């Protein structure tokens, strides 16, 4: 209930005086609520979250790109963000229909998530307007982008491969062709205020979970998250060169996922440890968290 009472003040009234402090306060309250979800996944559902690749520094301001295996990928980025002190500050570029979800949709609006229709002619002005408010380096932020634009299915993969063959693009087996304009818009607008770009590759042991599988602990048994930290000077600035760089990055993801299927894991595992209980249950919100856990378990 504290979130319901505090959100109008932090997200509306405080914003009149300072966007910076409004976002800080909103992120504090929602970060405390969001911490419940990694707690649910890792402690109650006993999902094993395995990190690999690079151990990235805490509290960086980053643009994050990830593949999109299923509808719950974005939730497992919370597990990484919580470990890096950025849970309340993570924002997503997501399709507009998700902004209408009960409870979550309300939170997405308050947290300044960027809603898109996945049509560049429609989305360009919205993205540029929202991104212009994210350029202050004093505002902590992780902006997560899924360049494929939708979750992976075999049918979508076949369409993507057909388009690639017709246009002389790489034929990818485990990811879809990335949409480059949105990523370039984000990178161009935020580059001067970022510390790095994180390239995240997500894969699930056995099968990909649905949202309900995730909430009720049916699946997944293991989530593997591979992280690569990319210095800004390694990413070109022109739109064409950025598009080529992103395409190459998704080719690397495709190879990485093929290796995962063959070997059952990503290289260089163990970059992050188990989730400490104290990070999930902030003492200030212990009663709130406990009540919600009981509700989820019982009902």
UniProtKB/TrEMBL annotation:
<comment type="pathway">
    <text>Phospholipid metabolism; CDP-diacylglycerol biosynthesis; CDP-diacylglycerol from sn-glycerol 3-phosphate: step 2/3.</text>
</comment>
<feature type="domain" description="Phospholipid/glycerol acyltransferase">
    <location>
        <begin position="62"/>
        <end position="184"/>
    </location>
</feature>
<comment type="similarity">
    <text>Belongs to the 1-acyl-sn-glycerol-3-phosphate acyltransferase family.</text>
</comment>
<dbReference type="GO" id="GO:0016024">
    <property type="term" value="P:CDP-diacylglycerol biosynthetic process"/>
</dbReference>
<dbReference type="InterPro" id="IPR002123">
    <property type="entry name" value="Plipid/glycerol_acylTrfase"/>
</dbReference>
<dbReference type="GO" id="GO:0003841">
    <property type="term" value="F:1-acylglycerol-3-phosphate O-acyltransferase activity"/>
</dbReference>
<dbReference type="Pfam" id="PF16076">
    <property type="entry name" value="Acyltransf_C"/>
</dbReference>
<comment type="pathway">
    <text>Lipid metabolism.</text>
</comment>
<dbReference type="GO" id="GO:0012505">
    <property type="term" value="C:endomembrane system"/>
</dbReference>
<dbReference type="Pfam" id="PF01553">
    <property type="entry name" value="Acyltransferase"/>
</dbReference>
<protein>
    <recommendedName>
        <fullName>1-acylglycerol-3-phosphate O-acyltransferase</fullName>
        <ecNumber>2.3.1.51</ecNumber>
    </recommendedName>
</protein>
<dbReference type="InterPro" id="IPR032098">
    <property type="entry name" value="Acyltransf_C"/>
</dbReference>
<keyword id="KW-0808">Transferase</keyword>
<keyword id="KW-0012">Acyltransferase</keyword>
